[in-house]
Amino acid sequence: MEKTNIKTILYVLNTLSKELFLVDEKDDKIIPKNKRKAFLDPSGMFAIVPKKKILYDTLSKIIDLTAYEPRDTPNLDFKAEKGEEIKSKYNLYYLKIIMKLCERYDSVSIKMKKDYPICFETEDFELILAPIIETA
């Protein structure tokens, strides 16, 4: 199978999320939080965590699993220290794609912390993007 790039995967997710409205409730099983797997891209910059079994199964079929092997979902702690300035840099290419995907949802939760991954969460999935860390 040819390797799939992240833009293609996000396009497929967008298409799938539209189709989820046609899925029968009984076929739309939610994966328990402790059992969810993340599809991490080869660069380690981006992860997709499907919340619904239909999304996980479909992504497993279309993604080159040698490049995007499902892994345990990262355990991220977004608690910030009181008074801590929340300021981070993220890859604009990924952010634009994520924003395009998220605009179709009524509710999107965004979690972030200084120099920490940003997480966009919808009812269907979580999208996790690593920050750009500047080194001196």
Description of the molecule:
This protein has a 6-stranded antiparallel sheet with strand order 3-1-2-6-5-4. It has one domain (6-129). The protein has helices at 6-19, 53-62, 92-102; strands at 37-40, 46-50, 70-72, 109-111, 118-121, 125-129. The protein starts with 5 loop residues before the first helix and ends in a 7-residue tail after the last strand. Helices cover 26% and strands 18% of the residues.
How are the strands ordered across the major sheet?
3-1-2-6-5-4
Question: H/E order of the elements?
Answer: HEEHEHEEE
For the residues shown, what is the average pLDDT?
Answer: 75
Going by helix content, strand content and strand pairing, the class is alpha+beta
Percent range for β-strand residues: 15-25%
Report the principal-axis shape.
globular
User: What's the story with the biggest beta sheet?
Assistant: 6 strands, antiparallel
Low-confidence stretches: none
Query: In angstroms, what is the radius of gyration?
Result: 15 Å
Helix content percent band: 25-40%
What is the terminal separation in angstroms?
Answer: 40 Å
Give the SSE map.
Elements: H1 6-19, E1 37-40, E2 46-50, H2 53-62, E3 70-72, H3 92-102, E4 109-111, E5 118-121, E6 125-129
Antiparallel strand pairs: 1-2, 1-3, 2-6, 4-5, 5-6
Helix pairs in contact: 1-3
Looking at this protein, list some descriptive labels.
136 residues; alpha+beta; six-stranded antiparallel β-sheet; 3 helices; 26% helix; globular
